[in-house]
Amino acid sequence: MNILATSGGFRLGRRTRFEPGPLIDFAFQLAGSPQEPRFCYLGTAAGDSPALTAAVYEAFVGTGVRVSHVALFPMPNVEDVRAHLLAQDVVWVGGGSVAGLLAMWRLHGLDEILHDAWVAGVVLGGVSAGSLCWHAGGTTDSFGPDLRPVTDGLGLLPYSNGVHYDTEEQRRPLFHRLVSEGTLPAGYATDDGVGLHYRGTDFVEAVSDTDGKAAYHVERGPDGAAVERKIVPRLLE
User: Fold this and answer.
1) What average pLDDT does this structure show over 161-171?
2) Is residue 115 among the annotated active site residues?
3) For a FRET experiment, which of 1, 74, 99, 186 has its CA 20 to 30 Å from that of 203?
4) What is this structure's pTM?
5) Which domains are present in the chain?
């Protein structure tokens, strides 16, 4: 039961739009390093953009990775979504609107299906919205440029989550305020390029594809103020 919640994953490619980075490789390691890993991309948060989906397929050209995707717009593209997701080694969720993602998943029953896949041993991962979704809540730009809280995540992980902590200036102060107020529970945040590995509901470690980046644990202190603790991630190669 592994979740890899990140502010990274794919990187800009040299010959293709994207290429899998060390965080993606680590997800395959968590799945037991199969020779031909089955990787399913969920692009719900970006409206199942055909261009982004095509870029994910292109990123793995020439590798042994067996890529697939599940789209919900305008209708599910696979006949049995449950069977398909349960047959994967890694399910990777792309970024975009976490509010839209959660609504569509619940409408189509993916909230329950993904819980069952997690229990069955499928590695769940993703970036940005694909990180927030597994948690109790976090901060989101789903509703506009001014960040707002989201408090109805899937809750597989009982923590809050902050993403893009070092590159979007609203993220840290709002995350602190929401934890301080009790709107969000204590949780973990990531700089770009950093991932959080959970086994079951336990935080195991932070990992990074970039030197000098960090993860953070934020909780409400005895005086009600947010207390932030820096976590130095293990650098992936």
Assistant:
1) 93
2) no
3) 99
4) 0.96
5) 2-235 (3.40.50.880)
